[in-house]
């Protein structure tokens, strides 16, 4: 496998994330994630890079998860979250200090999203707390009662009325105050430059829907911005604290636009219409939003994606015009800059790396890698790739093929297509561990962005609504036809893999065609009617994508559910699923397994205890390695070992 074995991709690769540029632009904080094989733990430690000398130094060594480091406004101290205390706690220290950092505050629940006050004397943060903080904790086997629709959340489990709130801690005396009320989750607090207000994202009852909440710090008085059924992606205060810029998708089309709210008048003005780029709003529980940066009173720098590429753009808030400053064939997340907006740091995945920190000097236009953690293994594996494109039903469909080490066009290879989740997400110029493991094992790996994928504009990304299993399926088959026609592809040895929405499409495909010799289906949406009522987002996301609740569109639910057609499947299929998945609940995998088993299809079902919908990314290292091993092994069994 030329180094990129499933085991190596979990245990031998370190990745960098969470960059934070010091206010003076001289240093950059970042965290390094590693897997601890002996203890079966994912660890994270904080490092600092001195840009003048080029040296990197590990800042934290105590505790397994040190994360979210942020510079104080003066650049003299840092704050970070650590599990080194018996509970989650915030620590503050001078980055060059010798000795232990000072613990500021701790909670029973996990702390996140640190934000320094502009005066440097307080820190705002998020922590989960029951609606009634004084109520006695229920016993482990006590009955759990709820009267709300958003009572559970993937990766968090059963919530009841427990929610993430905004707290402010005074660094001088350690006193803390809860700033928010009500049983709604908050995230990513941001102080106004004058220190009088905090704005935070608040998840509404739709779970994946959100608004902004502007809170007066001294009184707790609050107001809401945005549509209750919409979605907020990014936000940033103007330098004078009188305006707030935010990107929002009020219609949940999959494409956000920019808006400007005036604090004094309460008026909100839409700035852009039909953006061709997608501002980077991150991904809940994994990637924070890439918050824009005001360069002056009229111009805002922000990160966005266009046609699966990452870029930096400047928005003029008066005219709504957007100028491209940089575009790169990589996938970048996070966003941090010095106080002048000159030096920008982001996390980058590329064809040669899984997660590194990249810096851009906006004065010179030069970009460079700050870290080199995953590149030696990934970039040195001998994989090659190629962009491909085909057309189907009025749209150009973009894709990529990843080729094995030592690739020869004179050899015929098995082909595996990987389908992304979402569906409003995208693949691009940064390869997943599944794609790398498959290519290293000798498979040509194909992945593409069918309609419904983001970063291609509103019309393209919204074309999937009420058409799952329709033209999106046609787009994927058109891409398979396009690539399988190449002389180096053995069209008798085709495989398909997908997770989440990709799991939906995989389970749909094997009920529609027998052209694939093997399939691996991860966390599928298999029965849309039961998915609607059992998923943490089914009542909101499902109704939006599937034309309403099941009773309002019953024939469509039946026709477009893979469960309706599973009895036709003959493709040998491996189902992989986390047992604590609340997004695509384990019952979906169970229904699929039973249907295929009864149909006489060759099928295996692998369940990961305690695994959330994101277990393959944040679960225990042993589960992640097992998952990759089984995916590769299944395709080896049916596309290689079973004969050609």
Q: What is this entry, summarized?
A:
This protein is α+β, with helices and mostly antiparallel strands and 644 residues long. Among the domains are: 183-329, Neuraminidase (6 Propeller); 382-641, Rossmann fold. It has 13 helices and 39 strands.
Largest sheet: 8 strands, mixed
**Strand neighbour order, sheet with most strands:** 32-33-35-34-36-37-38-39
- The unreliable regions are none
From the 3D coordinates, which CATH architecture of one domain would you assign?
A: 3-Layer(aba) Sandwich
Average pLDDT works out at: 95
Explain what this protein looks like in three dimensions.
- By secondary structure, this protein is α+β, with helices and mostly antiparallel strands.
- Among the domains are: 183-329, 6 Propeller (Neuraminidase); 382-641, 3-Layer(aba) Sandwich (Rossmann fold).
- The strands form nine sheets. Strands 32-33-35-34-36-37-38-39 form an eight-stranded mixed sheet, sandwiched between helices.
- The radius of gyration is 24 Å and the shape is globular.
- The mean pLDDT is 95.
Question: What are the SSEs and their pairings?
Answer:
Elements: H1 6-11, E1 15-21, E2 27-36, E3 41-50, E4 56-58, E5 66-71, E6 78-82, E7 88-93, E8 102-107, E9 111-116, E10 122-129, E11 152-153, E12 157-158, E13 163-170, E14 176-178, E15 186-191, E16 197-203, E17 210-216, E18 222-225, E19 231-237, E20 243-249, E21 257-262, E22 268-270, E23 278-279, E24 293-294, E25 299-306, E26 309-316, E27 322-328, E28 331-337, E29 343-350, E30 353-361, E31 366-369, H2 375-379, E32 384-392, E33 395-403, E34 413-419, H3 433-440, E35 444-449, H4 458-462, H5 471-484, E36 489-499, H6 501-512, E37 518-522, H7 528-534, H8 538-545, H9 554-560, H10 562-565, E38 573-578, H11 586-598, E39 603-608, H12 615-618, H13 621-641
Helix pairs in contact: 7-8
